[in-house]
Design a protein that fits this description.
49% of the residues lie in helices and 11% in strands. It has 304 residues and is α/β, with parallel strands linked by helices. α4 packs parallel to α7 and α9 crosses α10. It is globular, with a radius of gyration of 20 Å. The two termini are 31 Å apart. The structure holds iron/sulfur cluster.
């Protein structure tokens, strides 16, 4: 432990965690550092395992994203996919992951699926899990039927970004992790970036997310906002919303990013070395956030 430096970097999820609860932010990005090593001190290891927990909705979202990535690889290789057998495979894999999580395998192998509902022994009826896998199937079925997908498939797959052209870039001295789910060049030479959504709408969050993609286009690919098309594809409905971006809106996103980075660094005792002290990171007053927090068992065990 301690050999890999904990360097400061920014991401949307880091910003979300910071906004939700400063203590959670500390535990996630500092307290659990080094816990990937099975020989780490027990408290750090415990935090690291808790950090990996995903709610069932997050898990379902990841399953859909991974399946779409797989589908694009097949399309790029010139293969077509039989939709229903493909979806059946995805659901079968979900069953395996669910069983692994239920058996607590993640405690020994923290990178395997770890569901919040299992760690916190939330008793859900089988119908709830069935609804989850049905939702995954609906999202994937809708994906295959999207006119946007048909449009994408008319473009050259050589110019698709399936696993991202780049995931991290430098923003005014801070590494920023940010990449669209999918990108392609339209036939008329415009850059299209797509965000696949599998859950309910979060209007503000979505706008910031897409704004971050516009920043990605500008910083990583050197494409100005006027030449970028941003798509938010809500796979549950299904509904595709297209957004236009402008230089002014991009400037506002940059300002939002600067502010977020500054706020996070202001909490550190040594910003240059990226070192923080737990006591400086207050616990949220909003117990509704604690209810679904991965670290509840160590931070507020009285809420069990
Ligand atoms: S249990 Fe509550 S106070 Fe503690 S880290 Fe989680 S959200 Fe923050």
């Amino acid at each position: 432990m301690g050999e890999i430096a904990n360097e400061f970097s920014w991401s949307r999820s880091r910003d979300n965690t910071f906004q939700d609860c400063r203590r959670r932010y500390f535990l996630h990005y500092y307290g659990s550092w080094g816990g990937w090593d099975a020989g780490a001190p027990a408290d750090i290891r415990r935090l690291y395992i808790l950090k990996q927990l995903a709610s069932r909705q997050q898990w379902a979202g990841r399953v859909v994203h991974d399946a779409i990535e797989m589908a694009f690889h097949a399309f790029a290789g010139g293969r077509d996919l039989p939709v229903e057998p493909f979806i059946a495979d995805v659901v079968e894999r979900m069953r395996g992951e669910w069983r692994s999580s239920k058996a607590g395998r993640y405690r020994e192998s923290p990178k395997t699926v770890a569901l919040f509902e299992h760690e916190y022994a939330i008793d859900l009826k089988p119908e709830v899990w069935q609804a989850l896998s049905r939702n995954v199937a609906v999202c994937l079925r809708n994906f295959f039927r999207l006119p946007l997908l048909a449009t994408i498939r008319t473009t050259s797959s050589e110019h698709w970004s399936i696993e991202h052209w780049s995931k991290v870039f430098d923003f005014e001295g801070t590494p920023v992790w940010m990449a669209p789910d999918f990108g392609f060049w339209t036939d008329d030479g415009r850059l299209a970036l797509v965000d696949w959504k599998t859950g309910g709408a979060t209007p503000d969050g979505a706008a910031f997310q897409l704004g971050c993609y516009a920043l990605y286009a500008a910083e990583v690919l050197g494409v100005p906002p006027a030449k970028v098309e941003l798509f938010e594809a809500n796979l549950r409905e299904p509904e595709v919303t297209q957004l236009q971006w402008s230089d002014e809106r991009l400037a506002a996103i940059k300002e939002q990013l600067r502010l977020s980075i500054r706020s996070m660094k202001a909490y550190l005792v040594d910003p240059a070395a990226n070192v923080g002290a737990i006591a400086d990171f207050e616990k949220t007053e909003d117990l509704r956030i604690c209810k679904w927090c991965n670290f509840r068992v160590v931070c507020r065990p009285e809420l069990a």
